[in-house]
Amino acid sequence: xxxxxxxxxxxxxxAPPLWLVFSIFGVILxxxxxxxxxxxxxxxxxxxxxxxxNDEVLTYTLWSIRAPRLLLSIILGAGLAVxxxxxxxxxxxPLSDPEILGINQGASCxxxxxxxxxxxxxxxxxxxxxxxxxxxxxxLLISWLSRYSGNDASRLMLAGVAISAFMGALTTGxxxxxETQLIEILYWMAGKLTGTTWSDNKLVWALDIPALIxxxxxxxxxxLLGQGEELATGLGVNVPRVRQLIGVLIVVLTGSxxxxxxxxxxxxxxxxxxxxxxxxxxxxxxxxxxxIMGAVLLSxxxxxxxxxxxxxxxxxxxxxxxxxxxxxxxxxxxxxxxHR
Amino acid sequence: MRKRKLHMGxxxxxxxSLALAGCGNKDQASVSxxxxxxxxxxxxxQASKAVSIKHAWGETEFAxxxxxxxxLDFSFIDTLTALGVTxxxxxxxxxxxxPEYLADKVTGVADVGERKAPNLEVIQSLKPDLIIAxxxxxxxxxxxxxxxxxTVAFDDASIDQIMSNVTTIGEMLGKSEEADKVNNGLKAKIxxxxxxxxxxxxxxxxxxFDDHFTVWIKDxxxxxxxxxxxxxxxxxxxxxxxxxxxxxxxxxxxRLHELNPDYIMMYGDSTDKLKSNPLYxxxxxxxxxxxxxxxxxxxARARGPIAADKILTQVQDILKEKSASK
Amino acid sequence: MKLRKWTRFGQIVALLLLLLIIAAVxxxxxxxxxxxxxxxxxxxxxxxxxxxxxxxxxxIIAVLTGINMAVSGAILQSITRNPLxxxxxxxxxxxxxxxxVVVLLVxxxxxxxxxxxxxxxxxxxxxxxxxxxxxxxxxxxxxxxALTGVSVSxxxxxxxxxxxxxxxxxxxxxxxxxxxxxxxxxxxxVEMLWPWTLGGVTLALLSHRQINTLQxxxxxxxxxxxxxxxxxVLLLLTAVGLSASSVAVSGxxxxxxxxxxxxxxxxxxxxxxxxxPVSALLGALLVTLADLLGRVxxxxxxxxxxxxxxxxxxxxxxxxxxxxxxxxxKSRSR
Lengths: 340, 326, 334
Description:
Order of helices and strands of chain C: HHHHHEEHHHHHHHHH
CATH superfamily of chain C: ABC transporter involved in vitamin B12 uptake, BtuC
CATH class of chain C: Mainly Alpha
Mean pLDDT of chain B: 75
Low-confidence stretches of chain B: 16-47, 239-245
Shape of chain C: globular
Largest sheet of chain C: 2 strands, antiparallel
Number of domains of chain C: 1
Number of domains of chain B: 2
CATH architecture of the largest domain in chain B: 3-Layer(aba) Sandwich
Radius of gyration of chain C: 20 Å
Distance between the termini of chain B: 94 Å
CATH architecture of chain C: Orthogonal Bundle
Number of strands of chain C: 2
Structural class of chain C: mainly alpha
CATH superfamily of the largest domain in chain B: Nitrogenase molybdenum iron protein domain
Strand order of the largest sheet of chain B: 6-5-4-3-7-8
Strand content of chain B: 15-25%
Number of helices of chain C: 14
CATH class of the largest domain in chain B: Alpha Beta
Strand content of chain C: under 5%
CATH topology of chain C: ABC transporter involved in vitamin B12 uptake, BtuC
Radius of gyration of chain B: 24 Å
Oligomer: heterotrimer
Shape of chain B: globular
Largest interface: A-C, 48 and 51 residues
């Protein structure tokens, strides 16, 4: 991974070999999966697991409730983490995240308008389209802004905060006008994974897998971009086109997540940093690593969200926020050490 | 420099004069019953004796029977209607100004806004001589309400409270006889339901939205009503949910399945999604066909004697079906 | 040259005052209940107090809130040298909102009296946290302040969401107060607010020279020594006081502090003697209009003023962002 020649201070210490890192995370993911699937499932014993069982409830719980939810948290975790990675590269700002920059809120605002305005919570296609539009609109805005904000990290952040405030106001305005559906929407807006179905999964996997693949293929280009736009252009990269493509990927990954689970933030903030610490700066490494770390993080968070305050459950977006905000502060403190 | 000072001076003077103009009126807000009776609509009894009413916000004396009443929650307009009185204004929720089950009995009621934020200007413009408010919801605007006219506040969390409100409000409006009639009628109906019941089937009132269930607790209005009618209300809230004023708990299907009541009165989303879920199919109520769809507005939102009566009628019908099918 | 600057200033102030008076009259005239002018005059002569009881205090609070938030934003933008700074962003409004929500949902019995206090306490706490985190030896670097503000804001917003979801059944009232509404505000609220407005604006105006200095680049400022750093802190406190008191009384009315200062700088230039009063007037105008709209659009329903300030403010803000690419603080003075 160091043959690309990108070096940074702090890179001097020896990073653990890649295969070890990936395997460890793979194992962790499997462990989380096992625990999530089996925690407090009545009637689950080793024998019933391996023999065909007539217990309908058991089968149903495992296959129609736990499994889809687990799978969704895995793909969303991966998608959001990679989206964060892409976003941080595109804005050249290590503090970027779809939630902080308002992309999540844009998507959910449009989605709420769709839910409330069309009164159909079951028309997932409409919600998905609305969500993608919202994410797209804000994504476009952010992309414009990031070109012109130069080296000042805070400008973009503040713009993002203002944008999320605006979208939040719009959303709340709508909700207040349609108060009868208030409670249900409020819950959704904190980002939740309850009630996941196989069709949700189909939707998201169908969108995210191609997006992830394209992202992985772009790794080399991203590396070049990271060295500066002029340099990249000089090396033959069509910068505007690539930026557009990255933007589309971010919109797809974020929009699909919001459409299905509401706005879940901070995965895109935390995971790329952790991935870079372990894997260096080569996007060929970081992107897959982010994907698997994101999957681990979100599935763990979802597990907590289900069982931390049983029988009530906590929206997973709140758990990621509680993790993410201190992390953000921590990042800020690190910045003082001249990592700008 | 001069110009700026001049400008600041102008701004200041204007603000100051506005403030002074306002300050002069502060002491004029009268609290004790303003008499603007114009001898209109609802004929009320001539109770010329002074009545002193105890309520959640203290004790209020009424020199005369209030004629123009503004109600700020559903249970109050329900109670008034049961007593034969029409308020001049009511606060509703969203598009529902007057609850539907009362709509045919009540007309000509002005809309004073959302019950969570009643419009003070509109209330004042109706020139009421009594406001009936809800203890929890309107605690924040208590002073403002009292600044308009006499205000009383009640809680309406259980059927017993509703009945005692009926008595109190009846006394306040000089309709004590009607109040007793209403209460006795209600008690009779409850007894009727209870006696026609075989055993004491367990029941839960549940809202189903977006894959989650909200279950009303035993101490809620609907819970207490059903309990008094002889049903066994199967859920009294968990420790986690009794902070705040929560009267319902969110729970997942698994937990509902654990509670497994005989009857489930359900409102909300259609249950088609659940049909394939064996946990759902495994519940006693579903197996025996005792999962009944009920109207959300009546069962979850409505409070008051008329509502109670309607709910009990529906309960009777549901139970009759059960005994018919037996 | 100087005379032209002042003449322009005079013209703008006069115009804004006129607009404000018109808005004020409209605000008194219109609402859920129709009050033609003669009724208002009749009231002044001692009739049924509708306008004077409800609309006048509300108008005054709108004006004061607008002044507070705009001036607070102007101060913050000068201190951080960042046109995107505002009380909403430095954690103050989020902290205030959190305090309010805690009282409304967790301790509902304290509501009426406790709400402004809790909101104020929350706002100040948030500001303190931001300050502590942003402080580095020697002072506060503007960028760091902004970023810390963002994260503390986020933190409080998550807490607010958490509480709202937990107490979902009762949260619609919380939302009304959170969104920044002047609903049911009365003379007692006016009394809570105006001392802060007076004090804060006076302090700001008195420090106009320092504010101008702080807008220079960081090295110059550091070179000027400790005294200027102290002034910076003092101004920060003023900004916090202005916005916290406003949040305590009116809830979180956003975008006023964000959008107004750049507009006023564009109108009268970068001299704080000029743009502070103009900001105050513009702020007052914005909030008054927002409140008026909220009351007349769908009576008897009242739409919180905060929603309108967001709807008006945000597109303008985005326009600002898009047209300003280079220096944040260069304004084209005419």
